[in-house]
C-alpha cells in the first residue's frame, strides 16, 4: 500500500515537472517554434478544435470499437477456458507451427482489412477482435507452460476431471497475469486501431488525426494526443482495479 | 496395509537409451503408522511416491491397496490453491463429509477462525496445514508427503512434526514421508525405509515408536548419533563400495 502511494506520488511529481518545464519553455522562452504549441494556445483552442474535427463522434466510434472488442475477446476466451488448455496441450506443436504467422506485419493486415471492408464499422470490429484474440491467445498459450506442476498433480490426485483441471487449476493459476496482460492489450489496441483508422476512411479518432495531419494542425494533434493519454490511463486504471479486486492472488 | 510389489521404472533418455530409475522395489506401508523413506537426492523417490499414489504408471510391478481408500500425495512445494479460501480448498475433490468432520479437521490442523482466509500471502507452514486439512477431508488410507519441510524454518518444522504426530495419533491416518534429512525421519517415523541408489535397493529399518523427537534426541543423544551415522553410511554405501 505504501509502495503504491509512493509510486503514485512519484508519477504525480514527474508529470508536474514535465508540465512545469513545458510551460516555462514553450510559453515564455520559445513561444514560436515548430515542435510544440504554446500552452495558452492549447487551452484557448481546445473547445474549438474538438468541435471543428467532430471529436465527440470520432471518440464514440473509437471507444465503442476498442472496449466492445476487448469485452468480446475476454468473453470468447472465458467461455472456452475448459477447452482451451486441453487444446493447447493436445495440439502444442500445431500452435507452434501456426505461430509462423507472427511474421506477418500488423500493418499489412490493417491495409488488407481496410481494402476488404472499406469504411465499414464492422471491418474495424473484425480487425480489433482478431488483433486482441491473437495476442491474448498467444499470451495464454505461453502462460499455460508456467502453471506449477504441484497444482496439477494435486488436482489429478484429488480426482478432478481434465475439464475441471482446465477450469479450476490452469485458468485460475494464470488468471491474474492474464488480466494484468489486458493492460498491454488495451494500450496496443489503441495504437493499432488509431493507425487502422488513420490509413482507412473510417470515422474514428484516427481519422481526426489524419485530418489534423493534412491541415498541418500541430495544436490539434497535441490535443488529441492528450485526450488519448487520459483515456488510456483511465482504461488501464479500470483493468488494474479489476485485477486487484478479483484476481489478487499470486499463484 | 499398502504393499509395494516389485516396482520397476524405466525411462528413455533424450538419446532413446533406457535408464533404470527404480529396480524391483518391494516393501510394505503399515496402517496407522508414520513411515519415512530416507533417500539421497535424485534417487527416484518422488517417482516412487507418484507411482504409489497412482499419478504415474510403473514399468513393472504393482501397488496393492487393501483398504480401497484414496492415497493422497502432497508435493514438496506448497500445493494449497491460493485463489481459494481455506474452506474452498478443503472442498476440492470429494465433498460428502459432514460439518462435524469438517470442523474437527479444521480444529485438528489449527485452522479454526481461518476458514475464509485465502492463503496467497501466507507462510509455507500455513499452506501446508491447508493441504493437510484438504487431504484429511478426503478420508484417505495414506497421506504421502514428498519432502514437505524442505523449504521451512526449523521452528515451523518442529511445530509441523508435532502436528503430523498428533493427526496420526488422533485419527490414525497413515503417513509416508519422503526425506533426505535423517534427523527428520528419525524424529517423525515409526518405521524408516532406506532407499539406496545404484544398485537400487530398499532396506526397511524397523525403528518402532520413535518418540516426538526433540526430547528423545536430547535424552538419548548418543544413540541418536549412532543411528544417524549408521543410516548415512548405508546411504553412501554405493560410494564406499566402489
Structure description:
The complex is a heterodimer of chains A (about 250) and B (about 240). With about 250 residues, chain A is mostly helical. Chain A folds into two domains: about 35 residues; about 200 residues, MetI-like fold (Orthogonal Bundle), CATH 1.10.3720.10. Helices cover about 80% and strands about 0% of the residues of chain A. The longest helix of chain A is centred in the last third of the chain and has 38 residues. Chain B has a single domain, classed as 3-Layer(aba) Sandwich (Rossmann fold). Chain B is an alpha/beta fold and about 240 residues long. Chain B has a six-stranded mixed beta sheet with strand order 5-6-7-3-8-9, with helices on both faces. A three-stranded antiparallel beta sheet of chain B has the order 2-1-4, covered by helices on one side. Chain B is built from nine helices and nine strands. Classes of the chains: A mainly alpha (about 250), B alpha/beta (about 240). The interface between A and B is medium-sized, with 22 and 25 residues.
